[in-house]
Amino acid sequence: MNDEVDMTTKTTKKTPASRRANNGRGLFRRMWSITWKLALAGLAVVTFYSIYLDQIIAQKFEGQKWHLPAQVFSRSMALYPGAAVSHPQMMAELKLLGYRKVANPRQVGEFSASSTRIELWRRPFLHPEGDQVEQRVMISFDSNGVSSVSRVSDKRQLAVFHLEPVLLDRIITGDGEDRLFVPTEEMPKSIVQALLLVEDRSFYEHHGVNPFAIARAAFVNISAGRTVQGGSTLTQQLAKNFFLSSERSLLRKVREALMAVIIDFRYSKDEILEAYLNEVYMGQDKSRAVHGMGLASRFYFGRPISELTIAQQAFLVAAIKGPSYYNPWRYPDRIQERRDLVLRLLMDAGDLTTAEYKAAVESPLAIRNLNKPAHQKLPSFFALVKQEVNERYGDALLKQSGVKIYTTLDPMAQEAAEIAVTQTLKSLDKSNKSLQVGMVVTDKYTGGIAAMVGDKTPGFDGFNRAVEIRRPIGSLIKPFVYATALAPNSQFTLATPLKDQPITLKSEQGKTWSPQNFDKKFSGQVPLLTALKKSMNVPTVNLGIAVGVDAVATTLAKSGWQEPLNEYPSMLLGAVNGSPLMVAQVYQTLADSGVYRKLTTVTAVLDADKNPLPVTRLPKEQAISPDTDFLIQYAMQQVVNTGTATRLGNAFPGVGLAGKTGTSNDSRDSWFAGFDERNVAAIWVGRDDNGKTSLYGSSGAMAVYLAFLKERPPISLRSIPVNGVVKGFFDRDTGVAKESDCSNVDALPALTATYRPVNNCGEPLQWWQKILGQ
To answer: What pTM value is reported for the model?
Structure first.
């Protein structure tokens, strides 16, 4: 019995080998249990994390991918029969817009020219009034400007034809990223083909990540001992650019790959490609990061991406690898070598013929001149634009994405103003140190500000003297004294004699004031026209006292002077503080047949969907009667012909110009305001410390205007008949209206309502005339 028990015990007792086997199986089961639980937990974590990433991605892709800076455009040049646009100005405008001059236009963006005509194939563009399609036109010119605009296809005459505006700048309010969005369908196909060849050949085959490319890149990099090749797909690069930092870590790469897979799963390849082409970093424009092919095209070449040559398109693709390393202005050989590589890949893929390849690689880089900024530096003008946008559209507008602001700025007028200011102040500074300047140019026809310079260094972003100074305007006020006197039903004419004798006025406080002429001399009396064109002080004061200082103040206020006026006799000689902008406003009224329109910088604003934003219209009213204004314009032309601005008239013989010089006491402020058929200009030259300058209106501010017109040749004022104005004849000595056949008379324009010539030249009537009642 005991033996049986022992036998049983022996058979159930485990050997060491069996124990090890059992332990192994138990460990395996425990490891398996832990592994699948960890895997399940990891899967759950990845799943929830993917859901989290998916929400982030969806929010970005299906919402607003980018905050697109507000685009600011210049005025759109309008061409129509009679438009005050000369042939040279049109040529300069086309050059500024990047049109190519050819013998025969064959595609959009080209033009040809003869001495009197320009054939143009205009680009399509977005106008505030709607999309403008590409159009081929013939523009003819005569001595007055544009004579006709007709379509080349059917010779049909066009009532009005617009050129596209210049993209001046983009107002960046966010993270410093700058871009111009370009839809995929508007992107040149060669750019897309080259991009895929260089960056991701299997883009349309993989699912966001390409394991074979990663493995190949790893092998190459290990063999080289450094990073020479990347394995990221375009989708991975997009994920990194959109959502991740440039940190180099395994965790970041894993997150990038996961996001790439999600992006590829959720969105089409074309959507991904469009996002990449508009997101990719393409360089640095000082403090602005240049993103996307659309902006890169303008940054490097100064033209729309649709007009790039195949070599220029290859350049953009080549620069993606390292915009700093391949900076064309610093390392032209590097970028040219890589550009040529891209072109060779296109040829090998059959997208370029051998001849096209050879022509492309032999072409120069043709990048824009680095001395010409990619965007306009217009601190004075842009400050006014922002102010007007806030006042008329609300301060939240510039925070919206994709807004388009159309302004009144004339790029050619701005360039001419900047050159005139820079050159003239440099010359004047030789004898007058510390001079400064403020200049405003308006468009006579639209009432828009065409150019503005607020400092002798035009690009300086600081105190804006065109808007912010307040200095005595001197004799610039005189045309408004005379406009008040020459109002309809007035007793005054251009020939009326005015007293030029010593005068002393006493204020209510008992203080006396004795105005003097510039030469400290008196002539007894002078015709009203002579007093104005010679800018004589005493006759002007006598005239102003006669019509009433308050009446003069009313005329000035109606013409657009927005600030309070002290209605003292000294006001008649310009003891009124103002700025170039304020002067430009009232002289715009004189130039525009007496019509007051508040000067503006903004003509229209479109939202991201191209819809115009509603806005109240600016005020407009007849401030000075058209017939009176005609007389003032005539008188101001005499200022240029034979008055204080004769030097200006001599510089442009035969050209009708109107102007007025002004100088404050002790020659502290030099002023000039004037206009041709196209532009009104108001200019101040002086010192910030209000020190003496030894300059007069004619030697300081008018010198700037003269230089401006040399850069922007003037268009002669058109003498258009005005109802209520006739050709009058006045006795030179007495100013009495006479008949045309009388002796000792001057022919001057006169108001119909007040021109009453005496019969028989004012001589005693004969006996037979008395009988006939004559």
So the answer is: 0.84
